[in-house]
Amino acid sequence: MIIESLLDTDIYKYSMMQAVLHQFPGAEVEYQFKCRSEGADLRPIRQDLEREIEHLCSLKLGPEELNFLSSLRYMKPDFIEFLRLFHLQSRFVDIGEEDGQLSIRIRGPWLHTILFEVPVLAIISELYSRHSWPDHELDKGRERLERKIEQVRELDRPGEFVFADFGTRRRFSRDWHEEVVGKFAREIPGSFRGTSNVRLAKELGLVPIGTMAHEFVQACQALGPRLAETQRFAFEVWAREYRGDLGIALSDTYSLDAFLRDFDMYFCKLFDGARQDSGDPMEWGEAMIAHYEENRVDPKSRNLIFSDSLTIPRAAEIWQRFRDRINVSFGIGTNLTHDTGVKPANIVIKMTECNGQPVVKLSDSPGKIVSTDQHYLAWVRQAFDVPAD
């Protein structure tokens, strides 16, 4: 089976899950799956997907896995005890077909559905690879992997160029993912600092890297005060949960301009930095540096993490622009874990409702906007003063 451990997911799923347990244990949510790749028909993998999800729901965390999670300083004992009893439940997942495409809805308590997203996407990605290219050899992938390592070594200050693997959800396969991460860890340990994947971090002795995802900020549209205050509310709740740990704020749930308005001097000093996941990275970096300076925070004491559709050369270009002005690092996903000579499916699972009301993500890239209700989307745009394109 593709998923053999509940740790085969991104660490930010566990950090958000802990915050949900403590802050919003009664929240009910819905997620929807979407394939953004034109012409990619995923219906033939439906039967295998259902079988894989049933297996996923049979998994529980064992003592060694729980010990690893409890070794992370920000994981709290009551959460570990909750995980000792936890397993996913397939009754929260509805798989069907809609408009000639595979459809997936995940609906239920947030606490009991939050861990579905990443492994389900990893399953779909690997099943699609098997179905589309059953005899695919990885020679091209290994050549490209070697070239990536050389690209890092050829930088003028390679020891200062820092990146991590963020590629679990769209990997070519579990085995290829492990090969890629292991190769980077052995060959360029000074630059390759970790992985978002908890299982690989445990097995390879790496640091699990990640903080929050858009769903946490989105859910606060239904869980917080009036709409215009919900981004600040999300950051306040996060800071209350982690008391200075995991201090990277996600900047593009409502657009960069809305983020900068909310991310005032208090948050500039409270959080260690911010993550960019849409829009122009150069414009974003310049805006963040200027914002820190305006709020009397030394940019060199803060961290910018870039994670939007990166390659090693593109990350190096961003790094060379900002490296002497602020601390920069990179989370690279699909280009690390699916660069094997075939085209990956662009697949996502996004939260669309919380407590019975729609939630949206505006983003700084039009293609990443998430909304199932255009009237509610217009209301969010008005609340955060984000014009329609």
Walk me through this protein's architecture:
This protein is α/β, with parallel strands linked by helices. The chain has two domains: about 10-135 and about 345-385, Alpha-Beta Barrel (nicotinate phosphoribosyltransferase); about 140-335, nicotinate phosphoribosyltransferase. Helix content is about 45%, strand content about 15%. It is built from 17 helices and twelve strands. Strands 6-5-4-10-9-8-7 form a seven-stranded parallel β-sheet. Helix 2 runs antiparallel to helix 6 (about 115-130), helix 3 (about 65-70) runs antiparallel to helix 4 and helix 10 (about 215-225) packs across helix 11 (about 230-240). The radius of gyration is 20 Å and the shape is globular. About 45% of the residues are buried.
First-residue to last-residue Cα separation: 44 Å
Q: Which oligomerization state do the chains in this entry correspond to?
A: single chain
Largest sheet: 7 strands, parallel
Number of domains: 2
Order of helices and strands: HEHHHEEHHHEHEHEHHEHHEHEHEHEEH
Function: Catalyzes the synthesis of beta-nicotinate D-ribonucleotide from nicotinate and 5-phospho-D-ribose 1-phosphate at the expense of ATP.
GO biological process, one term: NAD+ biosynthetic process via the salvage pathway
Domain Nicotinate/nicotinamide phosphoribosyltransferase: 161-387
GO molecular function: glycosyltransferase activity; nicotinate phosphoribosyltransferase activity
